[in-house]
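Researcher: Sequence of Acetoin utilization deacetylase AcuC-like enzyme follows. Predict its structure.
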Amino acid sequence: MIKIAFHGSYAHPLPEGHRFPMLKYELIPEQLLHQGIVKQQQFFSPDLVSEEVICLAHQRSYWQSLKELALPAKEQRRIGFPLTKQLIDRECRIVQGTIQGALLAKKYGIAFNVAGGTHHAGSNWGEGFCLLNDQAVAANYLLNNKLSHNILIIDLDVHQGNGTAQIFNRCSNVFTFSMHGENNFPFRKEKSDLDVGLDDGCLDAEYLDRLRLSLNFFESNLKPDFVFYLAGVDVLGTDKLGKLKLSRSACRQRDEMVFAYCKRQNLPVQVSMGGGYSSSIRDIVDAHCATFKAGIDIFEEL
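Model: Prediction complete. Tokens:
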């Protein structure tokens, strides 16, 4: 049975002005259940990830500063959230949810995290609402425990996965791919193994063509045994921060292309949700739920 990581603290209240980005984490599970895409027993609640596992991807000094709420004010501003113990615990549960999801994906083919996709967190910094890099930690967990040997990270959030690129810039066992808005945040980008930068206003056809070419390249040239997929919906034309012009249909086709590639290649895939900042929360939640439906439909095909 396909499993989904979710915990009530994912939607932990933040000070006024910071709550909207968290609201979707409460609404996505409700909508998935309402639409009959999943059943309640498919959700699991992750524990807190251990410090030793965090430090597979993050420098211990950075983790200590987070844990002790001792990051300098300048670094907290870079993250965008005021640090609290509840927020740190939330991040630790998200990371553990992605790790458990990766293990479940090896069993069932695919698993999801309602949150995650915290790809701006580097080995020794947090940035852009990201404190700990859930998929980077999980990838290193698989490698460290010899559960995987060659990993592909497909990052289709509208913002470049700079933290992920930095963490794995000297790791030959992880191939990092980011397709993103070239002129969007972060303005100082790191070098992924493959970066595809898109112009502002990119439309459906160009986006899907560029993705198809990349997936064809992977199919011909890479031999991963596991995939992490970051499925941000900030590529939508309705997104306040995205600068691209994708329709909801193209966003769904994007997901279907990635999942079909994984299914054809018999690759287990863990999916984290990433960004989404449309003015209407319905646009965000519906697009994320379409990602779940696409993955479940493809992996449950006989």
